[in-house]
Design a protein that fits this description.
217 residues, three-stranded antiparallel β-sheet, binds 5-O-phosphono-beta-D-ribofuranosylamine
């Protein structure tokens, strides 16, 4: 019997360039997961078009139709659970998740955040890095917990800030880095090398006190 490929749901709200990186890696054989559904809370998210072009099932529920965050999240989970996912990847999904959703999928939800966490949780990270005069910036893949951008970190892509670089240029380079590290993290999760246990991230059975770091130009 062949092992089941990691059934993965990708949640988006916008462009879906990270989703495209997953699609491309699955196509070239370097990412061995099964993207079973792409879900968006926005019907006009370009990522839905990317999914359809790749022949992946899509689903969309608009959050404005729900009275509370949890009611929306329960509707999302009802939809996702019809695909029996092993892994949920947030890829530019611009919603804060309810505690109910996080507990329902405990240890199965990954996010990528455009900063070297724990620095700069929240929005507008590139400008904040420039304003602070930081020498380095990057993007971090982490397990999702109830703390916003605060779950156990797995891997970070790091780059040196260039003199005179604009926030836009920095964002571009950070995104290129996350298109490498996020598929890598998904591959490790699918292989069972990365796990969430006791509220912490583990790699090959060793506690990841700090994330692994991959340096980019
Ligand atoms: C990425 O930069 C990611 O770090 C953040 O949202 C952005 C999504 O971009 N969480 P895309 O939709 O994957 O192009």
């Amino acid at each position: 019997m062949t092992a089941r490929r990691c059934r993965t749901a990708v949640l988006i709200s916008g462009s879906g360039s990270n989703l495209q990186a997953f699609i491309d890696r699955v196509a070239d054989g370097s990412l061995d997961i099964d993207i079973v559904v792409v879900f968006s809370n926005k019907p006009d998210a370009y990522g839905l078009t990317r999914a359809k072009q790749a022949g992946i099932s899509t689903a969309c529920i608009e959050h404005g139709d729900f009275e509370t965050r949890e009611l929306f999240d329960r509707a999302v989970a009802r939809e996702l659970d019809t695909y029996d996912p092993d892994l949920i990847m947030l890829a530019g999904f611009m919603r804060i998740l309810s505690p109910w959703f996080v507990q329902h999928y405990e240890g199965k939800v990954l996010n990528v955040h455009p900063a070297l966490l724990p620095l700069y949780p929240g929005l507008n990270t590139h400008q904040r890095v420039l304003d602070a005069g930081d020498t380095h910036h990057g993007s971090t893949v982490h397990f999702v917990t109830e703390e916003l951008d605060g779950g156990p970190r797995i891997v970070a892509g790091r780059l040196a800030v260039k003199p005179g670089e604009s926030a836009k240029e920095l964002q571009h380079r950070v995104q290129a880095a996350e298109h490498q590290v996020y598929p890598q993290a998904a591959q490790w999760f699918g292989e069972g090398r990365v796990e969430y246990r006791d509220g912490q991230a583990w790699f090959d059975g060793e506690l990841l006190a700090d994330p692994m770091v991959i340096d980019f130009d």
